[in-house]
């Protein structure tokens, strides 16, 4: 009466069934099933690391037959969760994330625009093979740009 079964799942895909009361805390669950290793054990529920040892299972909405992932860290202070974060913590800008790969095509486009600027204004410095090469690189980069941003 009043007991819930919690499936403790480990990284090696083994499972253990824990029996607890909804009023039990995360710290109580750790000390009952991982005595002496409480500081090394990280419990993850629905992608969130259960850090507050005083929170009750009921307040975390842990019900009968829920799965809690267990990760044993090497040191007592390591706080790396075994599962990735389920979503962004704050608002993000729409579109592609800003990174080196995302900025590569615009950077190449700017360099090409500079090439064409010098080709038009300083025509005497450009030979026929250089102009043909500039045209070929421009066509190639245009196809790459539409391939990256046309998705």
From TrEMBL:
PROSITE patterns in UniProt: UBIQUITIN_2 (PS50053)
GO terms under cellular component: membrane
UniProt entry keywords in alphabetical sequence: Membrane, Transmembrane, Transmembrane helix
The keyword S-adenosyl-L-methionine appears for this protein: no
Domain named Ubiquitin-like: residues: 4-69
Bilayer topology: Multi-pass membrane protein
Gene3D superfamilies (UniProt xref): Phosphatidylinositol 3-kinase Catalytic Subunit, Chain A, domain 1
Classification via InterPro entries: TMUB1/2, Ubiquitin-like_dom, Ubiquitin-like_domsf
Transmembrane segments: 98-118, 125-149
GO BP: ERAD pathway
Subcellular compartments: Membrane
Keyword set includes Transmembrane helix: yes
This protein's name: TMUB2 protein
Species this protein is from: Cettia cetti
Gene assigned in the entry: Tmub2
């Amino acid at each position: 009466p009043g007991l819930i079964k919690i499936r403790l799942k480990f990284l090696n895909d083994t499972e253990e069934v824990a029996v607890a009361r909804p009023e039990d805390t995360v710290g109580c669950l750790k000390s009952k099933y991982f005595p002496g290793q409480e500081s090394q054990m990280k419990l993850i529920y629905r992608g969130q690391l259960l850090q507050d040892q005083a929170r009750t299972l009921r307040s975390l909405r842990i019900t009968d037959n829920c799965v809690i992932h267990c990760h044993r860290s090497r040191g007592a202070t390591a706080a790396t969760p075994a599962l990735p974060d389920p979503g962004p913590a704050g608002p993000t800008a729409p579109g592609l994330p800003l990174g080196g790969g995302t900025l590569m095509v615009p950077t190449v486009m700017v360099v090409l625009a500079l090439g064409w600027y010098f080709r038009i204004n300083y025509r005497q410095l450009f030979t026929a093979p250089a102009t043909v090469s500039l045209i070929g690189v421009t066509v190639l980069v245009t196809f790459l740009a539409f391939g990256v941003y046309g998705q």
